[in-house]
Amino acid sequence: MYTVVDSPVGPLRLVEADGLITAIEFSPFAEVPVLGRPRGQQQDDHPVLVECARQLAAYFDRDLKEFDLPLAPHGSAFQQLVWAQLREIGYGETATYGEVAHRIGRTNAASRAVGLANGSNPIPIVIPCHRVIGANGTLTGYAGGLERKQTLLSLEQDALF
Question: For site-directed labelling of 104, which of 47, 98, 119, 151 has its Cα 20 to 30 A away?
Fold first, then answer.
């Protein structure tokens, strides 16, 4: 099932399967579901989707700093490892690709693989891939676009001060 909600970074499609959030998609939405993430029918009143929408709204209102949602991101064992580490990067904090690589027990040589896993994150915002930046502190690629990444980072920084 899925629903679509408005947000400061544009419409978001929230997708669930078996009571677990499997994807948050930025618009423009793909017409064909990504492998491993069936979309199903639109159901705006599904309890998990309603709760996901509520928590996202609270996040965008700067009232929520940690999400508490049942998640089921589809990916390889390495991607799962990276995504779990992303959830450890605190609200308003950032980490470099190299730092994430070290935190999962790899060397800087794994930075590119971390970047690819980061870019494949099916549940952005909740799994905060926007908090990963380049080694020199610059914003680097983001599946939702750098403007969205900047908006999310600015929202978190503004909420801290």
Answer: 151
Q: Terminus-to-terminus CA distance in the chain, angstroms?
A: 38
Quick one: tokens of 81?
A: 């490892």
Give the tens place of pLDDT for each residue, 54-66: 999 999 999 999 9
The pTM of the whole model exceeds 0.85 = yes
Q: Is 129 labeled as catalytic in the residue annotation?
A: yes
- Domains in the chain with CATH codes: 2-60 (no CATH), 77-160 (1.10.10.10)
Among 125, 129, 132, 152, the active-site one is 129
Plot region of 98 (φ>0 → left; ψ -120 to 50 → alpha; else → beta): alpha
- In whole angstroms, what is the distance from residue 95 CA to residue 137 CA? 9
